[in-house]
Amino acid sequence: MINDVAVQVVTKYLRKGNMARCLRDILPASSLTKEQREAVADIVHTVVRWKRLYEHVMENQGILRTAEKYVKLATDSNSVDPTSFPFEYRISCSPYVAGVLKSHEEWIEYINESPPTTLCVNLNTSSVDQVVSLLQNEALTVERSGLPTALRTTSVSKYSRVVHERFAHVQDESSQLVSYLAAFLGDSVFDFCAGNGGKSLALASLTQNKKTLSAYEMNTAKRSTLRQRCKEYGAEVIVEDSVPRKTFDVVLVDAPCTGLGAARRNPEVKYIDGADSLPQTQLSLLSQAADTVKPGGFLFYAVCTMTSEETSQVIEEFVQKNPFSLYSPDGFMYKKYLQPTSFGFITIIPQGDIFFLSVLRKPEE
Q1: How far is CA 235 from CA 164, 166, 187, 199, in A?
Q2: What pTM, to 2 d.p., does this model score?
Q3: Which domains does the chain have, with CATH numbers?
Q4: CA 295 from chain center: how many Å?
Q5: With CB atoms counted within 10 Å of each terminal CB, which end of the chain scores lower, N or C?
């Protein structure tokens, strides 16, 4: 039954792409238990994670590509020995991504791992101990992270009472680390590209609503979701309908990016052919956000990727054209999770996504 449903999802994915949407379209109507649905999701993730490798195997064996064959390869880990294959097939990625990873061996195995699900505890409605107890009462495994609000657990936890009753939300550890650093840098924080509000919720939680928090999202539907989530989680965040004229101690630009640093959770990104126009978008967002930074304040750039086009090159071009300087947050309690680079840091928090972070300081007037 599990394999049959996995074949249905993979069939649709091979036709239309968008793994997450295919899972959402099929799993709710499958009559499977929560555990069975997660088993299907694991198989589908494995298929997508190793898709290019599996295709190479099928091509070499003269086998027709079918959803059934992809699922069979995904559920029989001993059937493929890729050690003699070319690099891009061995790690199952596009030639572009292979070029990015060849100079960063430390990431090669990591991005093909299956990650834990991480929760961010909502300290405005609960406590870490209470959430741990609730998860354990539901027979869910739970492990404390190096960050106070982060708990590693299993994917089934998204169906848990702690998520349903807004005691916590699903959020990667490195994403939470971004919020910790933003809160460290100042007392008024503006989440400039807030999306559905994950980092705004984390900021409200870890500060327990004791800092001035504002957020803006250009997409109207996402902004509506952001406003509703803040209300549900008891997060005191001012959701702006346009970019405000006022200024802030810290402006966080969590910019749209290729998302290669989150390939463990979204393996489809391993097959991208390049960064396209994203670096221009990222530069434009930084330029817009710069006007909302107080003199002496901080412009904080975060992207969940490691391509040079979206990281060091963006910051290098920005500081050449704008009166901002690189800043190192030496007093930051969790700086051990930040690996320095020429223009910022790469996150190295265990089990977290790979983020590039750069803190830029605006000169005093």
Answers
A1: 16, 11, 16, 11
A2: 0.94
A3: 2-92 (no CATH), 117-170 (3.30.70.1170), 173-361 (3.40.50.150)
A4: 30
A5: C
